[in-house]
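re: the backbone from monday

yeah here it is again, tokenized this time
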């Protein structure tokens, strides 16, 4: 699984979780922010100060927890914990919302015996409503007793971060560096209000690799650009999305940097973790029945290919056609043409899986029944070849269904 290498750079740890890397515990509980009894408050805690990095939403309206987390990481690039609630985004809540986010940070820090600026805070849920802080305070006081290092504790945390998600999203890989086995794990939530340049997603990465905050930030941003920033469910970018990585350094390797021989292997493993989580978010899109992947090649640059892939994957008409199992390649080429990128209108190829529908911008006769059967599957891959230069990119999304409207029409009720 080493992305083009003859030997794998990393291995997937089937039973691994965010608590597999050395030094981490996690847990969650129900404190009453949700109407259901599903967990709605969770935390990841590291036994030592961990090198930290973060990537945040590009939405102008950024929720209060993002300010708190930026400040915590900015204090010295170190974190000991991240506290997360679901059921309420604490976004567009003014001075009171900001005060509540700081109170969450301070009270959890006090409860687990660490400095306040060693705690990150994340929230997800309904925008514009104040947190029920009495319930949050009660949950914070009980949460440390729910922390553990086993997979059950990790799953308890994963449940605590979900909103409209149908499934938990977690992955763990291992990679050998300096003769030491290093683990990288991730957990995420996201189902709707998902669009490139970060989205309504929360992501958390833990690793026991020895790596500095700046180096981790560089790799995290690179991984994000090729994974989380290449997914879309509905074209909406949230106020709350955040991806935070923590590295305990307890694996025993020499500190990773760009000159280290293990740099590429660690970077590939981190990118794989992010890609698995990103695809899981796309597949779990609100009301979705299938994962859609758009592969663009032959563009004038990778950046151009990214823009085209994201335009195709974000097209409501393309998404609707996939839901209806309609091999309507016209919608695909229309999206390619409106992406605002260089395209030769005479050299475009389009395929649905292995079924060629357009070659050199001319229609190709294909078996409609075979195409129908392919589009009924749970994964649909759209290939676009521009035949210009070597630029390439892949984007992920999902189909657009009746249930998407139903879910979002009643989100607050």
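seq for it, each position gets an aa:
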């Amino acid at each position: 699984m080493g992305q083009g290498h003859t030997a794998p750079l990393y291995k997937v740890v089937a039973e691994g979780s965010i608590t597999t890397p050395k030094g981490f515990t996690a847990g969650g509980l129900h404190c009453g922010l949700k109407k259901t009894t599903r967990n709605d408050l969770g935390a990841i805690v590291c036994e030592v100060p961990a090198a930290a990095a973060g990537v945040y939403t590009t939405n102008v309206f950024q929720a209060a927890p993002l300010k708190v987390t930026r400040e915590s990481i900015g204090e010295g690039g170190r974190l000991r914990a991240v506290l997360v609630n679901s059921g309420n985004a604490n976004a567009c809540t003014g001075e009171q919302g900001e005060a509540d986010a700081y109170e969450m940070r301070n009270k959890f820090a006090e409860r687990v015996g660490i400095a306040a600026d060693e705690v990150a805070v994340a929230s997800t849920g309904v925008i514009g409503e104040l947190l029920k802080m009495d319930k949050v305070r009660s949950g914070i006081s009980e949460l440390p007793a729910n922390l553990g290092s086993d997979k059950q504790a990790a799953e308890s945390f994963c449940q605590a971060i979900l909103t409209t998600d149908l499934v938990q999203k977690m992955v763990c890989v291992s990679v050998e560096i300096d003769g030491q086995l290093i683990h990288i794990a991730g957990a995420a939530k996201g189902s709707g209000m998902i669009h490139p340049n970060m989205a309504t997603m929360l992501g958390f990465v833990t690793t026991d690799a020895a790596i500095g905050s700046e180096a981790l930030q560089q790799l995290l941003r690179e991984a994000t650009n090729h994974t989380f920033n290449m997914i879309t469910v509905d074209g909406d970018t949230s106020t709350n999305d955040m991806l935070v990585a923590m590295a305990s350094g307890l694996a025993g390797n020499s500190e990773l940097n760009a000159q280290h021989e293990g740099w590429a292997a660690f970077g590939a493993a981190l990118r794989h973790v992010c890609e698995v989580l990103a695809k899981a978010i796309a597949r779990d899109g609100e009301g979705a029945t299938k994962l859609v992947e758009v592969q663009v090649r032959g563009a004038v640059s990778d950046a151009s290919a990214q823009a085209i892939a994201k335009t195709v994957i974000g097209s409501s008409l393309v998404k609707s056609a996939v839901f209806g199992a309609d091999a309507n390649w016209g919608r695909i080429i229309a999206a390619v043409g409106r992406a605002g990128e260089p395209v030769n209108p005479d050299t475009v190829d389009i395929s649905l899986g292995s079924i060629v529908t357009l070659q050199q911008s001319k229609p190709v006769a294909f078996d409609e029944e075979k195409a129908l059967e392919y589009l009924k599957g749970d994964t649909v891959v759209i290939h676009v070849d521009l035949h210009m230069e070597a630029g390439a990119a892949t984007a992920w999304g999902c189909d657009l269904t009746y249930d998407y409207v139903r879910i979002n029409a009643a989100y607050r009720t």
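The chain has eleven helices and 15 strands. The mean pLDDT is 90.
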